[in-house]
Amino acid sequence: MTAAAVTDQPPAPTAAASEHPPLAGASFAQLAAVFAALPHPAEAPRGELRGRAVALAGVQRLPGPARRALARALAALIAPVWRGKRIEAGGGTNLWLPPRLPFARFVPRRAEDGALLLDYDVPENPGPLRGVVGELRPLAPGLQLGRMDLAVAGRRRTVLWFTLGD
Predict the structure, then answer these.
(1) CA geometry: angle at 131 spanning 130 and 137, to 5°?
(2) CB 130 within 8 A of CB 124
(3) Nearest to 107 by CA among 82, 95, 125
(4) Is the separation of the CB atoms in 54 and 163 below 8 Å?
(5) Parallel, antiparallel, or unpaired for β 47-56 and 155-165?
(6) Which domain holds residue 66?
(7) Is residue 39 part of a domain?
(8) Is 2 within the bounds of a domain?
């Protein structure tokens, strides 16, 4: 699957880990459909996982070709800054910049439905980050598809889709 192959159909949930960049530019609806078809992970991934931004809320109203081009450009701009996540037993953090500075801690936890959540409501985080909740599902061996939700007026709204991989 190439970047040009992203269409109005959702990407296949069985994509190989090396193929995750084509998800960039997919619509939120496409990504939500893929995500809904994926199982809840048996356990949280561990270690330092490379992150890639896939879709950002602000560009979703653009037509497909413009959305895909802008998503690829934004992902390229974000890539040197947000390096991914470090997940360990009982906690984790986002990694920023080439020295992989930790910022924005989270606690992995299970939701009632079995979902693996990354809960940013921890004392170390500044107030605005405490409304962030991530969720991960395995897309392929060594690759997770994630969404970042923000609590707004008591409702969770997805603002970012991302991948995490070895």
Answers:
(1) 105
(2) no
(3) 125
(4) yes
(5) antiparallel
(6) 20-111+118-165
(7) yes
(8) no
The mean-pLDDT minimum among 43-47, 72-76, 80-84, 152-156 falls in 72-76
Number of other CB atoms surrounding residue 33 within 10 Å: 15
- Please indicate, yes or no, if residue 59 is contained in any of the structural domains: yes
Give the pLDDT of residue 22. Answer: 62
Q: Is residue 5 in a domain?
A: no
Which pLDDT score, from 0 to 100, does residue 70 have? Answer: 80
**pLDDT at residue 1 is higher than 80:** no
| Domains in the chain, number | 1
Higher pLDDT, 108 or 154: 108
DSSP 133: E
Instruction: Note the helical H segments in the chain.
Output: 28-37, 64-78
Query: Which token pair is 56?
Result: 């950002």
